[in-house]
Design brief:
434 residues; alpha/beta; Rossmann fold; seven-stranded parallel sheet; 13 helices; 14 strands
Length: 434
């Protein structure tokens, strides 16, 4: 086609239409102005921030899930919630078989509901199909949760649940002195193994190893994932883990101060049941403490066997008490002796905090190495010594002389035990409920 003046050229474009690119001529790209680049980057950042805010809002709306398997773990979840002013909290109780533990967990669940929290009781060990049913029912909540709180990082149940959650914020609350071993193993990159277990790995350990390794990675902060440790133990967490101090502020606000008795109280441990300490030597040590310090009551650990408690009651004359709440709450509510005697255990770290300002003294009796059984872990002696040596605000007693005592009578009847009062100071006296 020719132009009006007869010259040949490209066809004229209609006004307002984009110019066509000539065949064979590369497109000429114009650089946008600097302010256009900045505006584009700002818009991208704004959109990314908006997406992150909406994602965080969805996770916050899903709230916090806490998984507990023992009364002490649930107590420490309540302490954490009080410190952090957490409101949208659901406590999931992965119920164990042990009747004493179940009874204390039910009482702690009542206290949690009284504080306004939701409690979900799961019969997680009630038959062969229970784990699949429990995990299937919890998975949707796990995937939506913005924050997950756990009480026992050594638990296989908890380790499995950790692999299913998309929560960016993880919180570990105390499960007693096991926290000290957890932090050491995490810092050294070791697999998570309870301190009183031997280092060998059975078939079930090998089968579960990939899941345990994945859980350990989840508990290691990195990227956008945060990990916090809420503890009353004297530990220094690895880099990246936030340390939150547990001062038992909720306990001291809710209970007490206690009425003090003239005598002393002894706190029991499950060192015999876990195969660490010889039962005869343990009973002889309890008798020596009662004799030397005028103790009148023995507060049983929830895992102590009825046979052992019977021997303590008959051979020492102590009144055996099986409390239906964690000892920190029992002691804070009272009545309690002016001196509380314990072997190396969690309470030598927690009771001085829970009983601060009450005039109650706490003393810890060392475990003599000769008391250990042949089944005790090679780490038992150093671990127990560390529990005692790092306790603050306690009196340290030498190991009581403990020659083997006469064996107990086979098939003896369980001891008469005294149930402790439950609930708040004005709630009245109730019996254990299992």
């Amino acid at each position: 086609m020719s132009s009006p003046d007869g010259a040949c050229g490209p066809p004229q474009e209609a006004a307002g239409t984009p110019a066509r690119r000539l065949l064979g001529v590369p497109r000429q790209r114009r650089r946008p102005a600097a302010h256009h680049v900045e505006a584009g980057e700002t818009a991208q950042h704004t959109r990314a921030a908006g997406r992150a805010a909406r994602r965080d809002a969805r996770r916050a709306a899903a709230g916090t899930l806490a998984f507990v398997e023992s009364p002490v773990q649930l107590l420490n979840v309540l302490e954490w919630a009080y410190r952090e002013q957490a409101t949208d909290l659901t406590v999931v109780v992965l119920a164990p078989h042990d009747p004493m533990t179940r009874g204390q967990l039910r009482r702690m669940a009542e206290l949690a509901r009284e504080e306004g929290f939701s409690v979900r009781w799961e019969e997680a060990r009630g038959g062969a199909s229970a784990p699949l049913r429990t995990i299937g029912g919890l998975t949707p909540r796990l995937r939506r949760a913005g924050r997950v709180v756990i009480g026992d990082p050594f638990s296989r149940y908890v380790q499995l649940l950790l692999t299913l959650t998309g929560a960016r914020d993880l919180v570990v609350v105390d499960d007693g002195t096991a926290t000290m071993e957890f932090i050491t193993q995490l810092a050294n990159g070791e697999r998570l193994v309870r301190w009183h277990r031997h280092g060998g790995r059975g078939p079930r350990d090998l089968l579960f190893a990939p899941c345990a390794a994945a859980a350990r990675r989840r508990l290691t902060p990195g990227g956008r994932r945060t990990v916090a440790l809420f503890t009353s133990m004297p530990v220094g967490p690895p880099p990246g883990i936030t340390l939150l101090s547990n001062e038992f502020a909720w306990t001291t606000r809710r209970f007490g101060p206690p009425r003090l008795t003239r005598g002393a109280d002894i706190v029991g441990t499950s060192l015999v049941e876990t195969g660490v300490v010889d039962p005869d030597r343990y009973l002889a040590a309890v008798a020596a403490l009662a004799r030397d310090h005028g103790a009148t009551r023995y507060f049983a650990h929830r895992r102590e066997s009825a046979t052992k408690l019977h021997r303590i009651a008959t051979e020492t004359g102590l009144e055996v008490v099986r409390p239906d709440l964690p000892l920190e709450l029992i002691a804070r509510r009272g009545p309690v002796g002016r001196l509380v005697l314990s072997f190396p255990s969690t309470v030598v770290h927690t009771l001085p905090l829970a009983l601060a300002g009450t005039g109650v003294g706490v003393a810890v009796c060392d475990i003599d190495p000769t008391w250990l059984t042949s089944k005790a872990s090679p780490r038992a002696e150093s671990f127990l010594s560390g529990v005692t040596g790092t306790a603050r605000g306690v009196r340290r007693l030498p190991a009581a002389p403990a020659p083997p005592s006469a064996p107990g009578t086979p098939g003896a009847e369980p001891p008469h035990v005294t149930p402790e009062a439950t609930g708040t100071p004005d709630s009245g006296n109730k019996r254990n409920r299992y």
